[in-house]
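REVIEWER CHECKLIST
Item 1: Sequence provided? yes
Item 2: Single chain? yes
Item 3: Sequence as submitted:
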Amino acid sequence: SYFILAFRDVDRAIRKHISDKRYLREQLDIVETLSRDYYNIFKINPKTGDVVILKLDGYVTKGMEGAGDKIYPYDVLYKQYVKDRVYSEDQEWMYDAISLDTIKSKLLNNPEYVSSYRVMDNGEVHYYQFTYIPINANIPGGDILAGFKNVDDIVASAKERQNLEILASTDIMTGILNRGSGERKVIDAMANNKPGMLCILDVDNFKDTNDYYGHNVGDKVLRGIADVLKLTFRDEDIIFRLGGDEYAVSVMNLTDEESGKAVM
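Item 4: Structure as written out by the authors:
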């Protein structure tokens, strides 16, 4: 008997098989991640505009039912949802933001398309986020997953952090910058070679006001002076309270002495 012995390189086939399995795993991870984080998930065919509901919790868009194999036109999700659900001030932007043309354009060179919008629910405004992800990025025009979720808690947390930052930099008595934050802004301006004039101001005989009229009136005077400074100077100028009856203003973009005298 005779035998034929053949050898061939199977690296490419094995690598492709491993790559396909890894890619499939990545796609499943995307679906699982969306399913955990998003209330409503849709599969969209960008070529035909067909939509299949994969998950639907909470609000149901008119013309749609629950999750299943039923196919809906994208216009039902796109136009009806925006009309009935999205806050009036965001509707015009949203119509453009989630149109199929915009989505396809955004996903051409990006692995996902994410943005936020506001929803009106029972007279209250809520913050939502949408995410569009291609199911198979290697196939041009392949199906897209769309997820929608409420992000009120995230927005509230961000606002709280912002409020704390504002509070930390504000003089509680007068509402203008406190000494520390004001000085940091001036130092930063100097470090960036921004020209300006630093003015130091204090209130003559302020102690007499406190002694004669009381501290409540004295506090009103301090707040009134801060208000006058805000009205007198520009938004770009740095106005802050040094402490007591002393204030400072860094007048920005001022480069000559005559202009400085005119300001004072």
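Item 5: Key structural point noted by reviewer: The CA atoms of residues 118 and 127 lie 5 Å apart.
Item 6: Recommendation: ____
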